[in-house]
Structures are given as C-alpha cells and as structure tokens.
C-alpha cells in the first residue's frame, strides 16, 4: 500500500482525496517506482474538473521523478536503483506506482529529482512547441502568454537561447519582473495594458511570427491581432476556459492566419521522440540555457491547496508535490 491522491468524481479541488492505495508488483514491461518528487501541471486540474475526461476513480497527476525499486519481466534498459522521470502518464500523485518502462527516461547525474519532476512535462511541451510545432528560427519574434508560469519560464529562456526576440505577458508587476528575468526581451502586464496594441508598437506594426497561448479563452481573440500575415496561433492550454472559433473567416480577415491546437500525446507517442526531447531539455538545463526556478513546494497530502493556488494564479515558476 502507498499514500495517493485519488479522484472518485470530478469537480473542484475539494474532490482530491488523500488515501491508502494498493500498488502491487510490476507486470511484464513495467517497473515499480518509489517517487521522490511530483510535478504539478494545469492538465492535472483539467482532468480533475472533467474538462479532459478520465474514467473515475483515478490517481491524479501526470509527471514525477523517482527511483526504480522492482523490474517486471522483459525490462532490460533499466536497473533497480536507477533514477528516472516521466511525463504524460496519469497516476503520478502517489508515493509509489507502477509504470511502463518505455515511458520513463533516465535522469542525468547533473539534474536532481525535484528539478526533473518540475520540468519534464513543461519542458517537453516547450520543446515540441519551439522545435516542432513551429521550428523557431534566429531573428523571429514570438509572443508567449503567462510567461512567468512554469512552462513559460522554460520556453522563453529556450526561445531566447535560439536567437528569437521574446515578448511575454503576465498579470502583475511581480510576474512581469520575473518573466523579464527569465528570457523575455519585453513583458506586458495584460491587466494594465492592451497587449495587442503594445505588441504592434514593439514590432513597429508588423506583428509577431508566432503566438504561444496556454491561457485560452481570455487571450485568444486579441492574440490573433498580434500576428503578422500568415503567422501562427498556437493554442496549447485552457487556463481561462476553452477557445471556440464560431466564424473561421476571422483568420482570413486578420491576415490569412494559421491556428493549431497541439498536445504532447501526439508528439511523444514513440519512445524515440520522448528520448530526443528529454535529452535536449536536460542538455539545455545543464548548459545554463534554461535556469529552473521551483518557487512552490507542497506535501502530497496538500494537493488540494496546491490545485487552488495554481488555478487562482498564485504560483510562478514550477510547483512540486513531495510524497
């Protein structure tokens, strides 16, 4: 048995139940993990609320780091005692768990467990967005919403290292200062400024090449006004609500724009893709291109409080839960 956070029915943070949970022995192709740090992500709140349907009951969470304690039949790439991390596999809010060996990645010696748990999902999101959804080139200009958040801080630093000009948005003076310190050339407080007008000013009327928007409904429409003709709108999250485009001809009127709604499920379905992304991410952290800031840590038993803080925009940087 282990302690875990389960969702028996969807709803607000109060549906998170900290309780005993049976683990069992690893089956063929699986490993058993003793988890040391768990990452907190917006997708966790989407699954808990029912926005992203998951059959109940389920153990919440999608990202963690830990140590292998047992191997199932057929597992040859890992050994007991190896430090590993994973992302995109539901069931992370637990002291121990079983997981398919082909969904875990080794943690380099230079990366500690909390850092690995804090960055893998967010960092792999940044990787596919910057390197695959739109292969970002030196000299291009991007707009990144919620630049002070966990994914935002990783992505804006990485984009800056690639030679892009980075414009970020944030919702307070404290968060704008934080975003400026983590890769943004310019930061706009969207609560005190019209961000679309400011983007046009900063780009001399041209607009940006790409908008990366994990906020959703509250920022989508104005984000279209920030793009240059034939620019790309990347909507990858729904923190403020789900986006809808009732009239697709708006894309023509605003400059023959492109829109995409990507998800990591389709970028990391193959193990080779997962390993390539993780290797690039860990290398960027190791060489200093990405500096990781874990600003908040909660005991796993306080997952409810952690979800409230995340949804109320009270967090910056990465957040971890400690079993």
Task: Describe the overall structure.
- With 323 residues, the protein is of the alpha/beta class.
- The chain folds into two domains: 2-120 and 268-322, Medium-chain alcohol dehydrogenases, catalytic domain (Quinone Oxidoreductase, Chain A, domain 1, Alpha-Beta Complex), CATH 3.90.180.10; 138-261, Rossmann fold, CATH 3.40.50.
- 30% of the residues lie in helices and 28% in strands.
- It contains ten helices and 16 strands.
- The chain has helices spanning 42-49, 113-133, 150-161, 173-181, 195-202, 220-224, 250-253, 264-267, 271-286, 303-311; strands spanning 2-7, 16-21, 30-39, 58-59, 63-71, 83-87, 96-100, 104-106, 141-144, 165-170, 186-189, 208-213, 227-235, 258-260, 294-299, 318-322.
- Strands 3, 5, 6, 7, 8, 15 and 16 form a seven-stranded mixed beta sheet that branches. It has a six-stranded parallel beta sheet with strand order 11-10-9-12-13-14, with helices on both faces.
- Helix 6 (220-224) links the parallel strand 12 (208-213) and strand 13 (227-235).
- The longest helix is centred in the middle third of the chain and has 21 residues, at 113-133.
- It is globular, with a radius of gyration of 20 Å.
- The mean pLDDT is 95.
Count of discrete structural domains: 2
At the first level of CATH, the class of the largest domain is Alpha Beta
Give the tally of β-strands.
Answer: 16
Instruction: Give the number of helices.
Output: 10
Could you tell me how far the N terminus lies from the C terminus, measured between alpha carbons in angstroms?
Answer: 14 Å
Give the overall average pLDDT. 95
Share in β-strands: 25-35%
Structural class by SSE content: alpha/beta
Main sheet: strands, sense, barrel: 7 strands, mixed
What fraction, in percent, of the residue positions are helical? Answer: 25-40%
Which residue ranges are poorly predicted, with pLDDT under 50 across at least 5 consecutive positions?
A: none
CATH architecture of the largest domain: Alpha-Beta Complex
Query: What do we call the CATH topology of the largest domain?
Result: Quinone Oxidoreductase, Chain A, domain 1
CATH superfamily of the largest domain: Medium-chain alcohol dehydrogenases, catalytic domain
Shape: globular
